[in-house]
Amino acid sequence: MGLHLYNTATRTLEEFSPLHPPQVTMYNCGPTVYNYQHIGNMRSFVFADILRRTLEWNTYQVMQIVNITDVGHLVSDGDEGEDKMTIGARRDNKSVEEIITKYSDAFLADLEVLNIKRAASYPRATKYIDEQKQLITMLAKKEYTYVTTDGIYFDTSKFPRYPDFAKLDVKGLEAGTRVSLGEKKNITDFALWKFSPKDGAQREQEWDSPLGYEQRGFPGWHLECSAIAMKFLGNTLDIHTGGVDHIPVHHTNEIAQSESATGETFARYWLHNAHVLIDGEKMSKSLGNTYRLVDLHERGIPPLAYRYWLLTAHYRTQVNFTWEALAGAQSAYNRLTNYVLSLNISLEGIPITAYINKFTTFINDDLNTAGAIALIWKLTKDTSASDADKLATILKIDEVLGLGLSVIQTHAEQEKIPKAVTELLSKRKIVREQKNFAESDRLRDEIKKHGYEVKDTSDGQKLEQI
Predict the structure, then answer these.
(1) What pTM was computed for the model?
(2) Closest among 214, 219, 156 to 193, alpha carbons compared
(3) Is 250 annotated as a binding residue?
(4) Looking at 273, 298, 313, which one is the last position of a domain?
(5) How far apart are CA 151 and CA 137, in angstroms?
(6) Is 194 annotated as a binding residue?
(7) Do 379 and 355 meet the contact criterion of CB atoms below 8 Å apart?
(8) Would 239 disulfide with which of 26, 98, 256, 438, CB 3.0-4.6 Å?
(9) Among 326, 277, 321, 317, residue whose Cα is nearest residue 297
(10) How many CA atoms lie within 13 A of 45 on its CB side?
(11) What mean pLDDT value characterizes the chain?
(12) Do the beta carbons of residue 79 and residue 277 sit within 8 Å?
């Protein structure tokens, strides 16, 4: 089965076919680094990691870019309010540059503990101001822009397909508005560039404005993604991802400005992950209902148990966070890691073709990670397969799931369990299956003489050093 992905642009499941196989270009909307990322934010990056690993499983070579938003993301999607970076700097009593470093480093550390592969680059918006100004110049030459007292805006009425991506009812939005549009021509128009205030209060982040305007300013939030994506990946991307909250505004605006500038399709496949809810509401910094990975750690829950929990649901399905649900996932993840450790690592196995084929069917069906995890548990109970082949199969599947099982197995190898112990363990497994419990007890005692204790669990034998 070829790889099929749900394309938000068409609202259908489509067979994936990149522009220039085997190369795949993929852009993932990154964090705004004015604060730590919460576990809801991190779902987008776990999802993007599974997507990348699945592409690589299908022998594609992925060029992945994840931007770092470090300017221009205002508190309102309506281009109003203060820049989040300024708010964060004031809250922490630091410079904007200091909090960029602090929260970017924290984000990258979170990626590492979640076993998320590093992207090719994490470009900061402030390092590509020239590219953003060039994009504005292109749009101005094609008469897609107009100027107000507070900035340079994109005229969405000149891009007839503007409502299509998010299925927007623009007339309904206009009829429902209860506030003045000010100088905006249309309710959906958005800022490409914001002018700094004229009151003399200089921003930490401001640059000479494009199009020859004397008043300094800074780029709008939506502009950076288009400019950076096209800088690194070309005018047309194979894949663009983000959270579902980006569909109606951010990604719709990216499409409008990019395609108006180049006349080409901006992204061929758009994929979006659903939210992590808490008490039925979206987890959000503004609501104050967030948890970070460090909060999970303080409760004894490792990051990979959180990753496991996310993968038990489809990425397009909302998940409701509770400590009870996460504890259940941690228990299951612990059982899985213990099972991997219990297998005979002294023998080299071969991945079982039937299971690998079934896994490929699951993961190529729009990243069905829940089906893949269920398949692993089915394999653990398959008495027809050898321990060595089971281990080889699980580790092969984990190349996509990224649950860190190969690291666990490597650590076990490094502990250098004596060959005599692994041989006794294998013999004991056989006699237990034959219900020869007297011999099983004798072998347990032999293992104990070597300094190891074996425990029988629902997932098989578990070996512990005394």
Answers:
(1) 0.87
(2) 219
(3) yes
(4) 273
(5) 14
(6) no
(7) yes
(8) 26
(9) 326
(10) 27
(11) 91
(12) no
